[in-house]
Amino acid sequence: MRKAAWVSLPRIYRENMEKYLEKLLDIGIDETYVIVSQGSGAIFPSKVKPQIEEFRGKDPLKEYIGICRRLGIKIYTWIVSLNLPNNEFIEKHRDLYVVNKLGISCIDNPPYVPYYKWLCPSRDEVKTFLTQHFLEIAENYDVDGLHFDYIRLPDILLPRGIRSRYEGVPLEDKILPQYDFCYCNVCREKYMDERGIDPIKLDYSDEEYSRWFKWRADRITDIVKNVYKSVKNFDSSLEISAAVFATPSLAYKYVFQEWPKWGLDLYNPMIYHKYYNENVDWIGTAVKEGVKEGVKISAGILVGFMESREEMYRGFKAAID
């Protein structure tokens, strides 16, 4: 059984990396998904994504790897993929960001929260950008694998447990155009070329809308497969994984992730039960849905949602059983 943790490299770099990693080993965790590329920028000196100003002239990832290798801890680099609210990048590449059904760019009116500024997976430039970003890590650092995060479109529907936090978001499963992405010129033109229909004119009750929904999910699948193939061509031993929404059905319905079709080595579904108004035992139900798809899963559990040690034990046991 694998025991891993998601690790915030900026936080532990500012404090004491070695002490933190030794504590992980003490509780039996010997694999880490360490964030090296955030929406705000890269933590390491990247040639593809702007580096966060705090870390310019430094390479926290190189230092982290050195400590992990000495301690015998595996390293999977955690990469925020399509969410990119970096002003330096936006100034140069505004046209690469998603547009909602009202024709408004996420840059001008980000949905839900200010940092929801997303790249469009239909764009060839975005596919190239993400592939190059993964490859520069694979080629320049001694890591065990690479890990997608935010590899999706903005939530067309939020998880039920958090809808009440956002003004104007219906509590029921109702799609609204301001949360429906992407309708940029490239998406519309590509779909019109394939189907002869401008998707921005579709009503939600139209049968064609479900095809348009699937078309967008396929664009995410395409970009994942392209990155996977490129990294594996460089080094087939590298494990490629992804943090995905809790179950295949919810992931598709909420964020266009058809993740069982991506062909990755491992999936880390974020089974954060309270987001879905579920109790801790639902973790096991969610794991079973993913396993039924014939893919390898390592369940992501949010310890902060556990209200007692007993509940934490139940959650871990549900994931394993």
How would you explain this protein's 3D organization?
By secondary structure, the chain is α/β, with parallel strands linked by helices. It has one domain: TIM Barrel. Strands 1, 2, 3, 4, 5, 6 and 7 form a 7-stranded mixed sheet that branches. Helix 2 packs parallel to helix 3 and helix 5 packs parallel to helix 7. The mean pLDDT is 97.
Task: Show the helix and strand layout.
Layout: E1 4-7, H1 9-14, H2 17-26, E2 31-38, E3 41-42, H3 60-71, E4 74-80, H4 87-93, H5 124-140, E5 145-149, H6 185-195, H7 207-234, E6 239-245, H8 248-255, E7 266-270, H9 282-291, H10 309-320
Parallel strand pairs: 1-2, 2-4, 4-5, 5-6, 6-7
Antiparallel strand pairs: 2-3
Helix pairs in contact: 2-3, 5-7, 9-10
Q: What's the N-to-C terminus distance?
A: 12 Å
Structural class: alpha/beta
**Helical coverage, percent range:** 25-40%
Q: Which CATH architecture?
A: Alpha-Beta Barrel
Radius of gyration: 20 Å
- One letter per element, helices H and strands E, the order comes to EHHEEHEHHEHHEHEHH
Task: Output the CATH class name.
Answer: Alpha Beta
> Low-confidence parts, pLDDT < 50 over ≥5 residues?
none
Largest sheet: 7 strands, mixed
Mean pLDDT: 97
By CATH's scheme, which homologous superfamily applies?
Glycosidases
Q: Quote the beta fraction.
A: 5-15%
Domains counted in the coordinates: how many? 1
